[in-house]
């Protein structure tokens, strides 16, 4: 995609304080749950069409998710990835603990030491609670990924660190990247890139971290809204 692919005119989209950049982002990272996914088939198809447009037009679009690779790829309808030539690479998975390059090469693989894992499991068993409790120490951080799920990742490992690895691999800078998300595990990514978008259903902390807030929720094809705002999705 050429640098002049994005025009200076801003389409009538519902994004707070949005001004279309003179040069469209070369890279676009998206969270999946609560951001890219939509339960309504029609709304989700709008997102998928925009996703396909980005791939066909040379945008380095990638997943940045708490899911693992295989689980993330299952959100796409059967056969679509093959049709588009989308491999899921590059990609940021497990909240930055597994990061892959364009050809599937491992850029980051962050693992807990066995003694740290034992400490975590001992505390969970001692507490006898269904949910994790606060734990002292500096070896890991806990982040709320979904309403009923808390992820633990090694210190320093975030979606932001994962995107930084992907951008270095691609020879891109944070100024050339856009990102959108909804939850606390998206905040570091929001801080890293130049063009950050929070969906309407995002937490207030995420909206505060993002440069822009979309008026639509994930269930109203917010992903499509952002793509139309940044690129000429409707023109071909």
Automatic annotation (TrEMBL):
<dbReference type="GO" id="GO:0016791">
    <property type="term" value="F:phosphatase activity"/>
</dbReference>
<dbReference type="InterPro" id="IPR023214">
    <property type="entry name" value="HAD_sf"/>
</dbReference>
<dbReference type="GO" id="GO:0005829">
    <property type="term" value="C:cytosol"/>
</dbReference>
<dbReference type="InterPro" id="IPR036412">
    <property type="entry name" value="HAD-like_sf"/>
</dbReference>
<keyword id="KW-0378">Hydrolase</keyword>
<dbReference type="Pfam" id="PF08282">
    <property type="entry name" value="Hydrolase_3"/>
</dbReference>
<dbReference type="GO" id="GO:0000287">
    <property type="term" value="F:magnesium ion binding"/>
</dbReference>
<protein>
    <submittedName>
        <fullName>Haloacid dehalogenase-like hydrolase family member</fullName>
    </submittedName>
</protein>
């Amino acid at each position: 995609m050429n640098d002049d692919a994005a025009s200076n005119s801003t389409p009538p989209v519902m994004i707070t304080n949005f001004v279309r950049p003179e040069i469209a982002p070369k890279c676009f990272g998206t969270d999946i749950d609560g951001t890219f996914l939509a339960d309504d088939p029609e709304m989700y198809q709008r997102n998928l069409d925009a996703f396909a447009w980005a791939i066909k037009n040379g945008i380095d679009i990638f997943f940045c998710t708490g899911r693992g690779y295989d689980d993330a790829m299952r959100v796409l309808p059967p056969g679509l990835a093959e049709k588009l030539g989308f491999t899921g690479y590059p990609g940021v998975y497990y909240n930055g603990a597994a990061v892959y390059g364009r050809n599937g090469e491992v850029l980051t693989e962050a693992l807990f030491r066995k003694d740290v894992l034992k400490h975590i499991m001992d505390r969970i068993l001692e507490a006898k609670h269904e949910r994790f409790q606060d734990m002292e120490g500096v070896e890991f951080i806990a982040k709320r990924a979904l309403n009923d799920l808390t992820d633990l990742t090694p210190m320093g490992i975030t979606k932001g660190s994962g995107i930084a690895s992907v951008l270095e691999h691609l020879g891109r800078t944070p100024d050339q990247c856009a990102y959108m998300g909804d939850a606390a595990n998206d905040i570091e990514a929001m801080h890293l890139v130049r063009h950050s978008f929070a969906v309407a259903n995002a937490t207030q902390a995420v909206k505060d971290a993002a440069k822009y807030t979309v008026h639509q929720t994930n269930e109203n094809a917010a992903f499509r809204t952002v793509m139309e705002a940044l690129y000429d999705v409707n023109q071909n």
